[in-house]
Amino acid sequence: MKFDVNHALTWITKANEKIQDNKDYLTSLDQAIGDGDHGINMSRGFKETVAKLSENDYVTVSDVWKDAAMTLMSKVGGASGPLFGTAFLKMSMASKGEEAIDYPIFIKAVEEAVEGVKQRGKATEGEKTMIDVWSPVVKKLQEASDFNAELIRDTAKTAMEATSDLVATKGRAAYLKERSKGHLDPGSVSSYYIFDALADSLEEGA
Amino acid sequence: MKKIINDAEQIVTEMLDGFVLAYPNEVKRLPDTTVVTRKDSPIDNKVGIVSGGGSGHEPAHAGYIGKGMLDAAVAGEVFTSPTPDQVLEAIKAVDGGAGVFLVIKNYTGDVMNFDMAAEMAEAEGIQVEKIVVNDDVAVGDSSSTEGRRGIAGTVFVHKIAGAKAEAGGSLEEVKAAAEKVVANVRSFGVALSPSIMPASGRPSFELENGEMEIGIGIHGEPGIERKKLGSADEIASELTNRVIEDAGLKDSDEAAVMVNGLGATSEMELYIVNRKVQAILQEKGIKTHKTFVGEYMTSMEMAGCSVTLLKLDSELKELLDEPSEAPSFRA
Ligand SMILES: Nc1ncnc2c1ncn2[C@@H]1O[C@H](COP(=O)(O)OP(=O)(O)OP(=O)(O)O)[C@@H](O)[C@H]1O
Ligand SMILES: [Mg+2]
To answer: Global pTM?
Structure first.
C-alpha cells in the first residue's frame, strides 16, 4: 500500500473532527496543568487547516502536509502551533516529490517530524509533552514492515495514557513540578487524536 | 461570565481597532495582522524594538508603542503567544536598516514563535537580536525546568531598550542594555481572584473566598503557596522582601519600583501597598529613584498585584529618565 493524497486529506479531516468534538475536554486538561487554551488553539487551527486544504487540488502528499504545516503554524498559536507546524513541515520535506509515498518514506517522514519537534521545543522523551506520544509511535512504525492502523492507534493511546504518571519539566505544566503528576498532558491527548485519525484514514483507504 | 464584549472570537481584533482609534496620530495597524506599529515606522537607521505576547495583559503590549519605547507590538489570542507570521510582519515593518530587537517573555510558546519569526527574518536579510525576560521570582531558575517567567519587569525592558535605540544605540548596544535590565529586575505577585477566559467563560483557576495565591504568574499559572488573605502590609512585605533578596539589593543601592495591578485591584489598594514597599526599602537603606504605581501588565480581571524592583546603575538611571511618548508610559 502507498499513502496518497486522499489518505493525507482524510487524515486531516478526521483529526479536525476529533479535535472539534473534544475541544472542551482538551481545554479542561490544559486548565488543570496549563493555561486553559489548548482546546481553543487546536480547534481554531485545525478548522482553518481543513478550510485551507479544501481550496486546492493536490498532486503530492508533501504539498498537503506543507499547507497543513503553514496553516497550523500561523493559526494555532501557543506552544503547540509551532510544534505541530514543525512536525508537518518536516514530513513534507521528507516526502518531497512523491505523489504517493511508500512505507519506508512514511517512517522517515514521521522520524524527522519527531526530531523537528524535539529541536524546536528543546525537549526529549519523558518530559510530559507531545513527544511522549510521537516518539513511541515512531518506534512502533520502525518495528513494523507495513502500514498498520491498529498498531498506530493502540500505541498512541497507551502512550497518551502513560503521560499521566510523568512529572512535567517542559511547557507550562513544568511550573507545577510534582503537582503535574496525575494529569494527562493536553498536547499528548491531541497528538493521540491525530494518530487515531491517521489510523482511520488508513482503514478507510484511498 | 460578565464582560463588555461583542463576540469572544473577535475580541483581539476589535480591541486593536479601538486602540488605534484612540491614538490615531501615534500608531497604525498593519492591515490584516494583529500588529500595531508607530505611525512613523520604519525609522531610518534606528534599531526597531518589537514586543508582544498573548492578549489580556493590557496596556501591554500596544500601550508601550511610541517614541522612546516600542516600535511595534504583536498581539496573540487571549493568553496565547502570537504566531511567527505575525511577528515576522512586525519585524519587517519596523526594520529601518539598523536591525530589529525582540523582547520576549519567558514562556515556551512565546519563545518558540518569536524564535521562528527571527529565523525567517534573518533568512530575508534582516538582522535580529532578542532578549528573553524572566523576572518572576516565584518559579525557580533551574535548567531542568522552564526557568522563571516573564511578567511586569518586561515593562522596564521596553523602556530601557527603547531609550537606548532612540538615542542611536546599535543593535548590540540595545541588546546589552536589555540584558543589564534582565539581570537586575525581579518581580513577585499575588492573586486574590482569577481572570475569566472569554472563549470558555471559565475562570483561569479557582480560589476560595478569603484566600490568596502567592507567586501567581500573569495567566493564572499556579503559584507557590495558597493561604489566607493577608493585610496590605503583610502582602507588601512578603512580596518586597522576596524581591529584594532575589535581586540582591542592599544598603545604599538605588532602585526603580513598580507596584502593578493585575486588572481588578483598585489604585487605592495599590497605593496602600506602595506605602509599605517604600517603608521597607527605606528601612533597608535602598534608595528609590522612581516609582510607578498602576496597571502595567495585567491579567484581564484578575485581582491582585505584583511588586517589581529594578536595581539601577548610572546608565540604567539615565535611560529610565529619557522621555517616552508611549500612551501607557509617559515619562
Ligand atoms: N518544549 C516543548 N516541547 C514539546 N512539546 C511541548 C513543549 N512545551 C509544551 N509542549 C506541548 O504543548 C502543549 C501545550 O500547548 P498549548 O497550545 O496549550 O500552548 P501553551 O503552552 O499554552 O502556549 P502559550 O504559552 O503561548 O499559551 C503541552 O501539553 C505539550 O504537549
Ligand atoms: Mg496552554
So the answer is: 0.93
